[in-house]
């Protein structure tokens, strides 16, 4: 399938799953929990307060070398939006991509997504765990603190 077919298919709308495509065009679905949604909302709200000059996008689709991946939350600068608008999926990753780890996610899957987002131009990728851990990655590897929101942990882990 192509991403436009996924978006336009009425049978795939309003499902309680996160949908992605692998590199062969096959659907990947992950169930979403209310806890996952709560973290998504907290991260989006905190980013909106911290970086109001850009856009916060939840369920941000990005075309990667391994298919369309969907970041739980992304932050795109005004310059990114001016260049790419709201194309679906983005051919380049916004500056910040966030993955909230679900019980169904493997470590390998999350590591691959981090690499894919960075390869597509993300400056940082956050990996957020529901047990109040967070890892931040840049092109240099894991880093101690985000340049986008250094105080984000206190905002999302209440």
TrEMBL record:
Identification of the protein by name: Uma2 family endonuclease
MF-aspect GO terms: endonuclease activity
InterPro entries associated with the record: Nuclease_put_TT1808 (IPR012296), Restrct_endonuc-II-like (IPR011335), Uma2 (IPR008538)
Putative restriction endonuclease domain ranges (all copies): 16-144
Organism lineage string: Bacteria, Pseudomonadati, Pseudomonadota, Gammaproteobacteria, Thiotrichales
Pfam families membership: Uma2
Signal peptide residues on this chain, from the entry's feature table: none
UniProt KW keywords: Endonuclease, Hydrolase, Nuclease
């Amino acid at each position: 399938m192509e991403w436009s077919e996924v978006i336009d298919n009425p049978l795939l709308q309003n499902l309680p799953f996160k949908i992605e495509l692998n590199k062969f065009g096959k659907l990947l679905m992950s169930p979403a929990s209310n806890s996952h949604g709560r973290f998504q909302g907290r991260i989006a709200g905190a980013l909106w307060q911290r970086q109001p000059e850009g856009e916060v996008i939840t369920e941000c689709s990005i075309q990667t070398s391994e298919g369309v991946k969907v970041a739980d939350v992304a932050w795109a600068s005004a310059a990114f939006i001016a260049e790419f608008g709201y194309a679906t999926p983005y051919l380049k990753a916004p500056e910040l991509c966030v993955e909230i780890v679900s019980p169904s996610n493997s470590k390998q899957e999350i590591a691959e997504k981090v690499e894919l987002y960075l390869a597509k131009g993300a400056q940082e990728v956050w990996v957020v765990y529901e047990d109040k851990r967070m890892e931040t990655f840049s092109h240099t590897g894991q880093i101690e603190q985000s340049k986008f929101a250094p105080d984000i942990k206190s905002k999302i882990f209440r």
